[in-house]
Amino acid sequence: MAKLLIVDDEEKIRTLIRKYAEFEGHTVWEAGNGMEALELCRRESFDLIVMDVMMPVLDGLSASREIRKTGDVPIIMLSARGEEYDRIGGFQLGADDYVVKPFSPKELMLRIEAILKRTAGRSDAAQKEIYRQEGLTVDFTARIVTVDGTPADLSPKEYELLFYMIRNKNIALTREQLICRVWGYDFYGDDRTLDTHVKLLRHSLGPYSKFIVTLRGVGYRFEGN
């Protein structure tokens, strides 16, 4: 099974998550703050990290930012704050999911399993192809997107969302299709997750955000050649 790192300054929450995770057969490591998490990540490799946002010494967003510099281990952010600003902050750092406290430990386990299933085949997902339209270049193999020659800093989910939309360009994609294909059929989030990522993706694409068209009441369409 998977090797998980649970990062939270509340021991009761770490113990609760550990109980459910170990019941599912996972190996669990713990850290009480972001600094401890960084030290563990330098010595160990993990299949997934559950990271609290508000912690002493080093907060979860800062810790995730440092972890993202050296790897793309899946991260689920935990927070007692559910405002859009906090969600965007987590997703901009490449978080795979965002869970608001108080949460159901059973639901958290389902989210963990869904992410582990998706990321198991992540390395085989890209195809050897390059897509170009005007000043936008998308290298599927290298997972590099450039806007007018400048590399765009996209999160893992932004890459997956853009890749799927381009491969299905000029087709009306429903919200359900996008969520199922990018997050998985067993995703337990809501539509706001998709909306937030589309918003971030459009920002990353700059002038070429025009290629992503909103279909009111349906979803989105990538208009391309």
Task: Please characterize this protein's 3D structure.
The chain has about 220 residues and is α/β, with parallel strands linked by helices. It folds into two domains: about 5-120, Response regulator (Rossmann fold, 3-Layer(aba) Sandwich); about 125-220, Arc Repressor Mutant, subunit A (Orthogonal Bundle). It is about 40% helix and about 20% strand. The protein is built from eight helices and twelve strands. A five-stranded parallel sheet has the order 2-1-3-4-5, with helices on both faces. A four-stranded antiparallel sheet has the order 6-7-8-9, with helices on one face. Strand 8 and strand 9 (about 150) form a beta hairpin. Helix 1 packs across helix 5. It is globular, with a radius of gyration of 18 Å.
**How is the CATH topology of the largest domain named?**
Rossmann fold
Tell me the Rg in angstroms. 18 Å
Helix content: 40-55%
Integer count of domains: 2
- Count of extended strands: 12
Low-confidence segments, ≥5 residues, pLDDT <50? Answer: 123-127
CATH architecture group name of the largest domain: 3-Layer(aba) Sandwich
Mean pLDDT: 87
**SS strand fraction:** 15-25%
Q: What is the element string, with H for helices and E for strands?
A: EHEHEHEHEHEEEEHEHHEE
The first-to-last residue Cα distance is 43 Å
**What is the CATH class designation of the largest domain?**
Alpha Beta
Structural class: alpha/beta
Shape annotation: globular
Q: Profile the largest sheet.
A: 5 strands, parallel
CATH superfamily of the largest domain: Response regulator
**What is the count of DSSP helices, taking H or I runs of 4+ residues?**
8
